[in-house]
Write a sequence for this structure.
């Protein structure tokens, strides 16, 4: 477990630590597995399948919610200051990084899980499950929101 994760977790946030650990375990278990549209297992995840898989390790009652549903659902609340275990959500739209290169393609909604102040993890179509730095030029150019699961303390 990276020290930055442990240092940024409040002592009362055992659930957050469990989410981060579950995300890292899923990352290890899915190593080498491709992105799979609709995938919900370590054989291949899509982004919302990865979030559901991880959350179900901590909250067994968590029902799968697709990417659009995560943003629109009352089970997630937008937060200004993300903490480990929160969801990072990228709304559908163009990416300024790509637009600067002449690509005006619209990219779909995307979700992942915040590991710490510097890193998030999710399943990307180009990499499968991967850790991503918050400063990554491609991802940091996109609009993003942070969402907290309503049952997370």
């Amino acid at each position: 477990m990276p020290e930055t994760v442990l240092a940024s977790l409040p002592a009362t946030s055992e659930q957050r630590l469990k989410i981060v650990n579950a995300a890292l375990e899923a990352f290890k278990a899915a190593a080498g597995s491709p992105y799979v549209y609709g995938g919900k297992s370590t054989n291949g995840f899509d982004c919302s399948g990865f979030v559901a898989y991880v959350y179900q390790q901590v909250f067994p009652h968590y029902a799968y919610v697709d990417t659009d549903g995560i943003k629109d659902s009352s089970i997630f609340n937008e937060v200004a200051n993300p903490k480990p275990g929160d969801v990072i959500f990228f709304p559908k739209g163009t990416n300024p990084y790509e637009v600067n290169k002449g690509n005006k393609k619209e990219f779909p909604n995307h979700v992942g899980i915040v590991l710490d102040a510097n890193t998030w993890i999710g399943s990307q179509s180009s990499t499968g499950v991967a850790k991503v730095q918050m400063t990554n030029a491609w991802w940091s150019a996109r609009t993003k929101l942070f969402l907290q699961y309503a049952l997370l303390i």
Remarks:
- The two ends are 20 Å apart (CA to CA).
- The longest helix spans residues 14-29.
